[in-house]
Amino acid sequence: MKPLKGKTALVTGGSRGIGRAITERLTADGARVAFGYHRSKDEAMAVAAATGAHPVRADLAVHGDVLDLVAQADETLGGLDALVNNAGIWLPHGRFDDADEASYDEVMAVNAKSTFFAIHHASARMRDGGRVVNLSSIATGRPTPGNAVYAASKAAVEQFTAIAAQELGPRGITVNCVAPGAVDTALLRRSLPPQLLARTARNTSFGRLGAGDDIAGIVAFLLGPDAAWITGQTITAAGGLL
């Protein structure tokens, strides 16, 4: 029997990278899925055709779009059992001597604010016993020049996770977080030069970058019945990256 058969899930940023792998895994495990996308319409339609998941366009930097995404997912799926806050961005001008206010605001809006309000809106509609999984990053524990805004936005996600787990626990809803390491996505390749990517791969226990499926499997486990006693946790998934 498929572990998520009969369950419904909303995945933000579900058309590319880790989000696409999560959408594919959850549908393969029997869940009915709605997923958000922003600019990648062609990729979203391809994911929908391959998985049967329902795409919804949303700009997560806009609060109204977050509410609309949750509402459309709830209506389309006939209720929500799970929310996966996967969408995230990294932008340049993150150094203190090269700060850009617009970039700061956009990273915080997409990575932190949308996560907070997606939990706010989805939990109000979610059935008791539901699941929330947020995506963070190992950047929260690795001080790196130029990464202050991104790391801070993801640190906020980890705090939202810990506190939401306490607030939603009385309804049997678990809230957990996965903090990936270096996963081979377009976002990572835009963020790091090729020589640093190669060095990062060598520094994992397996001598490679992570893949979307490596993270999707952990998310699927946390949404499933065997993870009912796990909540408020941030799980590092970095392949032993040193």
TrEMBL record:
Example GO molecular function: 3-oxoacyl-[acyl-carrier-protein] reductase (NADPH) activity
InterPro entries: KR_dom, NAD(P)-bd_dom_sf, Sc_DH/Rdtase_CS, SDR_fam
Keywords linked to the UniProt accession: Oxidoreductase
Pfam families with a match to the protein in the record: adh_short_C2 (PF13561)
Sequence intervals crossing the membrane: none
Residues of the Ketoreductase domain: 7-181
Oxidoreductase recorded as keyword: yes
Keyword Zinc: no
Name by which UniProt lists this protein: 3-oxoacyl-[acyl-carrier protein] reductase
Organism of origin: Phytomonospora endophytica
